[in-house]
Amino acid sequence: MVDNQRAHRTKAGFTFQDLAAIILFIDNFDELKSIKAEGNHEDIDIELLDGSWIYAQAKMISDPINSNKNYRKRKMSESFTSLCNNLFNSKNPVSSIVYISNCKDPLGEEDTATKSFYPVYSLTFDQLAKVTQNRVEKMLDKKIENDYLKKKNKSKEEALEILKKDFGVQIIPFDPRHSYEDKFHSVQSYVGNFLINRNLMQNASLNIMRNWHDLFRENSENYSKDKVLTKKDLLWVIVVIECNQPFNTDTIAFKLNVDVAIMDEISIRFKEVFDYISERLEFCATIWSDEEEYVENHPNVSTSYIYDFINNSWRNYLDFWDIDDITGEEQEVLIKMVLYRILTKKSTIKHIMETGNVNVD
């Protein structure tokens, strides 16, 4: 039983770390170059476009409402040591350090219970309660007294000013004991607000959050130092979800010269194939370019040139696929379906990517 509980806490801790990465991705969206959960320096490493870095420690409290305050202090103190080491001793320029918790009182200065349902929010050093600021200053004092900053030749006052400028706290409501819906509610709302503000898929926040969570988990389990996620990777998730909308198979099958029964049957594999072939945005750009060239070379093409292009060109893309357990006719249908979606969703795909200033040409 103890081992099972420990495994559950570990799994929940990694889940919280991935959710924290989603929040930081959104908060730093415009300036973000790359992000990695289970980073090379901290729980989450973010490189910004200007070459500076954000380092974050994400620590989950199993009982965020009634946990012992000394336990919360210890969690914070351990993270603070690591964060300060990167703030003052990193070879990279540091934009900020962030301590992320699922407890409204992460430093253990209060004994009163707090509600478990509230929005995600962040606090700068100056926005922290005075008692919390004093606690952080005391922790920094200990680091200085232990010659922690000697090699940087920083005085206590200088170090404190740097800390005040660069240190922040992020609170993400997350109680591992709750149901799935309640546990992820605040982060889903945060994702939803991001989608609204960016004019993206506003009704798909849960699906996008789940896929981002899976992507961060997969990335964090890859311990290669060079394996990071970019805006392109995370925005591509939205593209895949957008393009995986149901097909009007009766109309499309007729125009693509394929059997509607086969299209109905094989359409369940569309997402599998689209994910596989569309790992590279460059593939879409190739299709768009090929289509434009086709139209230029066929001046008398009909107004339904998309279908003409697909029906005459689909064989050119056979080498992009290596699909198991599929007949030649089924492969033709799948390729035509992917081409159809890439062409008819061209403006949508470009809008999604251009939201993050990702080059689509």
Automatic annotation (TrEMBL):
Superkingdom of the source species: Bacteria
Descriptive protein name: DUF4297 domain-containing protein
